[in-house]
Amino acid sequence: MKFSFIIPVYNVEKYLRQCLDSVVNQTFQDIEIICVDDGSTDACPAILAEYQQKDSRIQVVTQQNSGTLLARKAGITIAKGDYLLFLDPDDWFDLNAAERLAQVLEKNDVDILQFGLTVEPGKEMPTEQIQAIDSFFNRQVEYLVGSDAILTAGYVNEMLPYNQVGKAIRTSIAQKAFSVLPEVHCIYAEDQSFGFVLFSYTQRLLSIPDRMYHYRAGVGISTKNNLTVAEYISTLGAFRVLEALKQFVATHYADSPLHQRILAEIQHSMVRASVELAAERTVGYKDVEEWMTPLCEQAPAPEIALLLARKLEERKKQMAAFEHTTQALRHEADSFRRECDAQQQEADSLRIRIRKLRKKRRIERIVWLVIWVVTLLFLFLMITKI
User: Fold this and answer.
1) CA triplet 288, 320, 277: central angle to 5 degrees?
2) C-alpha dihedral, 33 to 38 to 43 to 45, nearest 10°
3) What's the CA gap between 71 and 27, in Å, rounded?
4) Which of 22, 125, 237, 375 is the most buried (most CB within 10 A)?
5) Which of 289, 332, 330, 346 is nearest to 312 (CA)?
6) Are 204 and 149 a contacting pair, CB within 8 Å?
7) Per-residue pLDDT averaged across 20-36, rounded?
8) Is the pLDDT of residue 363 over 50?
9) Bridge-partner residues for 143, per DSSP?
């Protein structure tokens, strides 16, 4: 048995060495490591070249920045292993992960072996958020037979995560599933889309609780905050993936209510993600049309208006809450300044009182000195007369 590790790489020089070390040092040796450099502009290409010189099992594929979906597809296309293991470049595996997976797969002829994941917070994160991620990735279904049962578990009952990491996937099935998806840059719903096709082709899935994958939460490449309208329009190419899914269902599962239902949910998810992506970058309401018109052209879905209204209302409430908090802070600051002014006035008054008191004491000393001098002079004259 042979495993193919597929690692899409893009500008993760800080974490890449730990990722690669966790693979090249696997206790199970019959592996190949396919790293797809997705147009990195940092030190990643140099790091990949360094590791490739040291380990002949490493293959490096270089492409222009096309997104994780196509980077994985490039790796899958040339994979020679019996099973694929996806690994994001800021995550890592236990060193005996492949060995443990091989032992299970030798005893169980399955298309997908699902295993557990440990959440490693990459930055300070709320406990509730960490628990939610952990719960999503570590759902267990034990053994499922039939694509309908697997799809139902993943997309209807939400008992099975459809993400690509945390799974050993039969290479031939993964290659078949990826052949359905078009060559398009996709920055959201790629796991959801690929998982839909993959589960449709999967007949046997086994889930084990062993946590062998370490997921660094909060560190992955996220959408730029300064996304321009032109860049946003380019992301809408993801709807070509949706069209491919529609064609896939029409060709193979036109009479399947389950596939139709899941496809509708994926479309809604993609539309919602696109609306939120645009709404987060609008300024008030003045430029909504500029952002939303391309989306409506790509996906003329009736729910766009409602989703946009909800999102903008949510932003309005957030801005109102922010303004309320700001005003409260201003009032608090004004109150603090008034308190400081009052304390300053009190200090000034106290300094004036101290100066007056010192002046009074100096006068009292002078008066007493004069009295003593006069008294002594008087006594001296009296003694002299006697």
Assistant:
1) 35
2) 50
3) 26
4) 22
5) 289
6) no
7) 96
8) yes
9) 206
Residues recorded for the chain: 386
CB 30 within 8 A of CB 105: no
**Interstrand relation of 58-63 and 112-121 (parallel, antiparallel or unpaired):** unpaired
Find out whether 201 and 109 touch, Cβ atoms under 8 Å: no
**34 has which bridge partners?**
6, 59
Closest CA to 37 of 75, 77, 4, 3: 75
What is the residue-wise DSSP string for 151-164? HIIIIIS--S---S
- 204-258 pLDDT per residue, tens: 999 999 999 999 887 654 444 556 777 777 777 777 888 888 899 999 998 899 9
DSSP state of 238: G
Residue 307 has φ and ψ, to the nearest 5°, of -60, -40
**CA-wise closest residue to 92 among 203, 201, 216:** 216
- Angle 149-112-142 from CA coordinates, rounded to 5°: 60
* Residue 268: HSE in the Cβ half-sphere, 13 Å Cα cutoff: 9
Distance between CA atoms of residues 290 and 230, nearest Å: 10
Distance separating alpha carbons of residues 198 and 247, to the nearest angstrom: 15
Cα dist. 113→205, 226, 378 in Å? 6, 39, 117
Question: Distances from the Cα of 18 to the Cαs of 12, 14, 57, in angstroms?
Answer: 11, 9, 17
d(CA 66, CA 8): 11
Element (H, E) at 295: helix 288-298
Q: Where are the beta strands (DSSP E) in the chain?
A: 3-9, 31-38, 58-63, 83-86, 92-93, 112-121, 143-145, 167-170, 204-217
State the Cα–Cα distance between residues 373 and 54, nearest whole angstrom.
Answer: 103
Max CA distance (Å), the chain: 143
- Say if CB 186 and CB 67 are below 8 A apart: yes
